[in-house]
Design a protein that fits this description.
Elements lengths: L7 E5 L4 H12 L3 E5 L3 H10 L5 E2 L7 H12 L6 E4 L14 H29 L2 E6 L12 H21 L4 E8 L6 H4 L13 H4 L4 H13 L4 E4 L3 H11 L1 H10 L1
Helix pairs in contact: 1-8, 3-4, 4-5, 9-10
């Protein structure tokens, strides 16, 4: 049975970057999409140009409690086959220079919103004995590095959450896939938060050398279709880093301190 064609897929962060590439690829494969981001106007434009009939469901994920309530309202009227937690925000600031409010904002969007939306669909999936939750984490959730303490902390946390939820829901035939991208050529560094919460608004050389959003989307869809538990997506050092961390942790720590 196809994991994509004819399925209703709720996709967050759908208006740009990896999310936009996913929306385009999933629609081409015959999915019916529920498109979520903050800008309703941008989502409406996207829904109109994608093949198929899709729904726009704008949400601000910086308020997870509100997102959870709206998610429950959505599920009351929709059967969700696949939830893709893709929305997120990155960071570029040193620990000593980062306000506590910025750490909280990173956790709200990158960690608590994932829990909120996952919980909003999970009871329905358990009752139906089928469903799939996909979360776009990061290689930064496997390997820590400079200037990403809040982002990395949130991604480490969300990988742990996915591991626990996967174990709990295995007997109910609900699948959980964690995607850990390395460097992907998106606006993620431009939108990354600095120490005072403002956007970085500049290019990151590592990002420009990464894979395209389309390549990342193709790998994510393949992981969904194969019911993979966890997949590292990328090329070069950003893809190798988790393996190096596993077998040579001291080396990775030294390299991270020098970069």
């Amino acid at each position: 049975m196809s994991k994509i064609n004819g399925k209703t897929i709720w996709l967050t962060g759908a208006s740009s970057g990896i999310g936009l590439a996913l929306a385009e690829a999933l629609a081409e494969k015959g999915a019916r999409l529920i498109l979520t981001a903050r800008s309703e106007a941008t989502l409406n434009e996207l829904a109109e140009r994608l093949p198929g009939n899709h729904r726009v469901f704008s949400l601000d994920l910086s308020n997870p409690e509100n997102a959870f309530q709206h998610g429950q309202d959505l599920v009351a009227n929709e059967t969700i086959d696949v939830l893709i937690n893709n929305a997120g925000v990155s960071q570029r600031s040193a620990v000593l220079d980062t306000d506590l409010s910025v750490y909280r904002q990173l956790m709200e969007i990158d960690y608590f919103s994932v829990i909120a939306l996952t919980k909003s669909v999970l009871a329905q999936m358990q009752a139906r004995k089928q469903g799939h939750v996909v979360t776009i984490a990061s290689v930064a959730g496997k390997v820590g590095s400079k200037l990403r303490s809040g982002y990395s902390g949130a991604k480490f946390g969300v990988i742990g959450f996915m591991d626990c939820a996967r174990a709990e829901m295995a007997e109910h035939n609900v699948h959980f896939t964690t995607i850990c991208p390395g460097f992907v050529r998106t606006q993620v560094s431009h939108n990354a938060l600095t120490g005072d919460g403002s956007k970085l608004n500049q290019e990151d050389p590592d990002i420009t050398g990464g894979i395209s959003p389309e390549e990342c989307a193709a790998a994510i869809i393949k992981a969904i279709e194969q019911d993979r538990d966890e997949v590292i997506v990328g090329k070069g050092l950003s893809k190798l880093a988790p393996t190096l961390q596993r077998f040579f942790p001291n080396l990775v720590r030294k390299l991270s301190a020098k970069r």
